Amino acid sequence: MKDTLVLYPTLGKGHLNSMIELAKLILTQNPSFSITILILTPPNTTNNTSSTNTTTFGCESLPSITFHHIPPINLPTTLPPQVLPFELCHVSNNHVQHVLRSISKTSNLKGVILDFFNYSTTQITNNLEIPTYFYYTSGASTLAIMLKMPTIHQITTTSFKDNLNMHLRIPGLPKIPLVDMPEHTKDRESKSYRVFLDIATCMKDSDGIIINTFEAIEKRIIEAMNKGLVLSEGTTPPLFCIGPMVSNSTTSCEKDECGCLSWLNSQPSRSVVLLSFGSLGTFSRTQLKEIAIGLEKSGQRFLWVVRSKNELVERVNSEELSLDELLPEGFLERTKDKGMVVRNWAPQAAILSHDSVGGFVTHCGWNSVLEAVTFGVPMVAWPLYAEQKLNRMIMVEEMKVALKLNELEDGFVSGTELGDRVKELMESESGKEMRERIYKMKVSAKEAKGGGGSSLVDLKRLQDSWRDHASMHSLSPNSPFLFR
Q1: Whole-number Å distance between alpha carbons of 96 and 73
Q2: CATH no. for residue 391?
Q3: How would you class 51 by CB atoms within 10 Å of its CB: exposed for 0-12, middle for 13-18, buried for 19 or more?
Q4: Which of 48-62, 165-179, 303-317, 395-409 has the lowest mean pLDDT?
Q5: Reported pTM
Q6: Are residues 229 and 290 in the same domain?
Q7: How many Cβ atoms sit within 10 Å of the Cβ of residue 331?
Q8: What family does this chain come from, according to its entry (predicted)?
Q9: What SS3 class is residue 17?
Q10: Do 13 and 134 share a domain, yes or no?
Q11: Does residue 233 sit in the same domain as residue 295?
Q12: pLDDT tens, 191-232?
């Protein structure tokens, strides 16, 4: 029977695309494998989804990758958005159980790889004795903090929110200001905090954690974790650092709908600063105006991807506000020879790989950080949500490839501050040193994925771990299932 893996991402195009890239990478070393990717359907969907069941998500040339759509499930519309993905996975477990049983009848089911949002599926895989791995799309540093949280919870009695002037100390990392911890970790009485602890426990007890990073950029923390210095109370699960996995910039270049790549072709080498903040990186009109003031003040060439906050509320007569309405009067005209402003989306990987780009103002999402490293572009760090302040700490203090913006308490950044940091990145001696440093990391990223490289070695270790596990084709049809 054919060796098979099941990959299970949470809702969202980004999570799905990331799992697809992981599947493609696995097949480069295991071409005889088949991979099934489970697709969650958004809750309360009434439309017939059968038309999407044959979607191949760009994998037409890879028949070894197939997709199984989990039927839609009704959930209370009052569920908070941050709880929805966890609850959707939980109530989908019965169907996932059926799928895993069905696959095991015709294949050697070597393992299941879960997005950490889908941690409750470990109730299924553990009872079925299926090797279970987590795919962690951020870095090893934030993973170490996450895995340490249950221990921190046990030895403390107060919430982080009551001690924001204090720091965490974890071997292999700089001092971690509690004020920079993700919001869901700050209140030990909240439901999201409890979910976070449950995820950490499940990940710690798994057969391994696959991380989108590589040794050269997080060497200290990876060594500390592998030596057992972080999880002193128990064994660290096997870690497989198989990155960097980033978007294919060549594919992204095929459609330059916004015209930005054509514009970059006319700019001098390493002269343009990209400002891009991810799909959730939106700003108020006041902040957008300050960004514009800062860019104009810096005198640098720029390519700026603009997303305004609450655009549905800010629309006039159901029409999207124009850039002239969002930005300072005359800004577009005054900067037309030096800058380009794009609404909502641009092919980020393709832009960062372009010879004209020499700097990147980023929200510090880990995928964006890896893209910048892969293409050798130094950064200005402007974290907005989730674990991004922790990523900034690594970028600024450990990797030393980013400048830190000074923010006000509410996260607001003045135009003067932004302009000064952009100019420093592009013109100062410290900016030059960062550019040299990140170029070396670019070389290391390529070496990590090449013959004998650390990421390729870890990918082969992962492959060996599947080989060591017994196949699941003899699964008992009467296995018990326990649910919370």
Answers
A1: 13
A2: 3.40.50.2000
A3: exposed
A4: 48-62
A5: 0.91
A6: no
A7: 19
A8: Belongs to the UDP-glycosyltransferase family.
A9: helix
A10: yes
A11: no
A12: 999 999 999 999 999 999 999 999 999 999 999 999 999 997
Q: Which of 202, 192, 125, 206 is nearest to 161 (CA)?
A: 192
More confident site: 341 or 45: 341
- In contact, 49 and 19? CB cutoff 8 Å: no
Tokens of 480: 């018990």
Give the CA distances from residue 426 to residues 284, 348, 359, in Å, rounded to whole numbers and listed in that order: 26, 19, 7
Known catalytic membership, residue 115: yes
- With contact defined as beta carbons under 8 Å apart, do 406 and 417 qualify? yes
Query: C-alpha 295: how far from its chain's center?
Result: 27
How far apart CA 273 and CA 304 sit, in angstroms, is: 8
* No. of helices (H) and no. of strands (E), the chain: 19, 15
Query: In terms of residue numbers, what domain contains 348?
Result: 249-444
Burial 334-367 (b: 16+ CB within 10 A, else e): ebeebbbbbeeebbbbbbbbbebbbbbbbbbbbb
What does the DSSP assignment read for 303-371? EEEE-BTTHHHH-BTTBPPPHHHHS-TTHHHHTTTTEEEEES---HHHHHTSTTEEEEEE---HHHHHH
Strand, helix or coil at 426? Answer: helix
Percent of the chain with pLDDT over 90: 79
Which pLDDT tens digit goes with each residue over 238-250?
A: 999 999 999 765 5
In order of 395, 440, 446, 455, the CA distances from 451 in angstroms are 27, 18, 10, 9
The one catalytic residue in 115, 207, 354, 363 is 115
Q: How far apart are CA 353 and CA 347, in angstroms?
A: 10
Rg of the chain over all Cα atoms, to the nearest angstrom: 23
Catalytic annotation, pick one of 15, 207, 363, 458: 15
How far apart are alpha carbons 153 and 204 in whole angstroms?
A: 15
Q: Which residue has the tokens 């059968």?
A: 50
SS (H, E, C) 352-382: HCCCCEEEEEECCCHHHHHHHHHHCCCEEEC
Domain count of the fold of the chain = 2
51: Cα separation from own chain's centroid = 29
Is 15 in the active site? yes
Alpha carbons 135 and 32: distance in angstroms, whole number: 21
Extract the tokens encoding 263: 């514009």
CA dist 435 and 402 (Å) reads 9
CA distance 256 to 112: 37
Q: Is residue 476 part of a domain?
A: no
In a domain, 367, yes or no: yes
For residue 52, pLDDT over 80 is answered with no
